Amino acid sequence: MKKIITILLGFLVIASISSCSKLLEVKPDNLVGVDEGLKTAADLQAYLNGAYDVFRNTHVMGGTAFCASDVLAQETDAASTGFEWGQIKTLNMNLFNPIGRDIWKNSYLTIQRVNVVIDYLDKDKITVSADQKKVWKAEAQFIRAVCYFHLLQFFSLPYDPSASNTQPGVPLRTEAVLTNEFAATQVPRSSAEEVYQFILTELQAAEANLPVTPALPGHVSMDGATAFLAKVYLQMGNMAKAFQYADKVVSTGRYSLDNYWLAKFASASLDSTTHEVIFGLASSATSDNSGSGYIDSYRTNKLDPPGFGPSSNLATILKTINTDIRATQLVNKAGQNNTSGLYSTKYNYEYMVAPVICYNEILLIRAEAGLATTQGTPDADLNAIQIRAGVPQTAATADNILLERRKELALEGKYFFDLKRLQSSNIHGGVGWNSPKLIFQIPDLEQNGNPNIVLN
User: Fold this and answer.
1) What is the pLDDT of residues 42-66, one digit of tens each?
2) 220: containing domain
3) Residues 308-347: pLDDT tens digits?
């Protein structure tokens, strides 16, 4: 994906705003350029491409946020004792935590961009073909839904399928910011239930209108929306729906497990083929790296020492079966003061696709949801993962599926959210699944411009 400089230059300035920012930093400061810069279909396409660029920011889909969730789950050890990581390691995140601030800022910046695209399409401000209008709006709705799901995971107490979920979610900003006056509008937090229902509605609309083949390389297709619906329903504990959408993806026959278990990460940098990525944000060079957050956190063949490595507990689990190929990522490397440390080679690439949803995760969702609802072939789904990993095949029990899920998706930031949805009482040394200690504070950049917002 290449940025179209002539259209986006004014907008991209926002991404570099300083740490003393206020609410307007999650929306354009100079809004005149929106009306002046978007005149043709090509302009709007460029603006949508720009939304994809922010979407792959390290604190949205690019990896750093997911590294933070692994620190919260104690799946990875952070060498840094600096302000942001020190707070996360001790569950004392405040409103100034840089990780939380950047997750919030860049997620809402992405949302703002797609809001503009949807506004221009809905109000026919630019002449585009009917097919373009349908697909571009669907792409924008998908991106917006994923960003809201991302925000909920880090800033709202987890979803409880047995409750009404009236706990505060996040502000639902769905209108395009085209004037400075509107940018100052204070938006309250919607309930978690309201935000989840909005996400589902957006994803269902996206699924209905996206093409089977992506409109452009690196853009989302229909299967991406279907697969992400399975992921959202799993997090909500709706196993019937999770199975329905996961089964729909598998039944297309368009995806399979790669022979090489890391092919989906290596495909960009090593120019190899992957059949496992259902939707990922593309990369073409080190200067165009969608997975920089993963690489910058974990890479062992250039970082000395890497900032993060698997916890001893995770390493033990990965090494339990000596034929497990997922354990081959573990290496000892001299760390701080030449002290040996255990690290992972999973992200040892110059640049990589940032995976948003992949086939191995969908197989595990279908196995878990199928077991819970007595549908499908949970044993076969689980065994497919185990066969590639080189471990003995087992029956699809809840424990066996979750163990394989933990190993297969290790250091991808997912285990923390699994612990929450499974209502674990032992997260981060004994903290309960719905503890406010496990979510970030609403950051200062929001509080400064929206002083009446409900805080965590």
Assistant:
1) 999 999 999 999 999 999 999 999 9
2) 5-16+23-287+352-447
3) 999 999 999 999 999 999 999 999 876 554 445 789 999 9
CB-based burial of residue 299 (10 Å sphere; 0-12 exposed, 13-18 middle, 19+ buried)?
buried
Q: Is residue 266 part of a domain?
A: yes
Burial of 405 (0-12, 13-18, 19+ CB in 10 A): buried
Provide the H-helix boundaries in 210-308: 222-236, 239-251, 263-266, 292-298
Kindly provide the b/e burial profile for residues 270-280, where b requires at least 16 CB atoms within 10 angstroms of the residue's own CB. eeeebebbbbb
pTM above 0.90, yes or no: yes
401, 378 contact by CB (below 8 A) = yes
CATH code of the domain covering residue 11: 1.25.40.390
How many structural domains compose the chain?
A: 1
- What whole-number distance in Å separates Cα of residue 73 and Cα of residue 429? 9
The angle at the Cα of 268, spanning 228 to 17, to the nearest 5 degrees, equals: 70
> Given the structure tokens 């093409």, which residue do they identify?
211
Report residue 76 as tokens.
Answer: 């990875």
Instruction: Give pLDDT tens digits for 220-260.
Output: 999 999 999 999 999 999 999 999 999 999 999 999 999 99
The answer as to whether 292 is a domain residue is no
Angle at which helices 378-389 and 398-408 cross, to 10°? 40
The 3-state DSSP class for residue 331 equals strand
Domain assignment of residue 297, yes or no: no
pLDDT digits (tens, 9 = 90+) for 181-207: 555 678 999 999 999 999 999 999 999
Place of tokens 């032992």: 426
Q: What CA–CA distance (Å, rounded) separates 319 from 325?
A: 9
d(C-alpha 361, C-alpha 281), whole Å: 17
Please indicate, yes or no, if residue 453 is contained in any of the structural domains: no
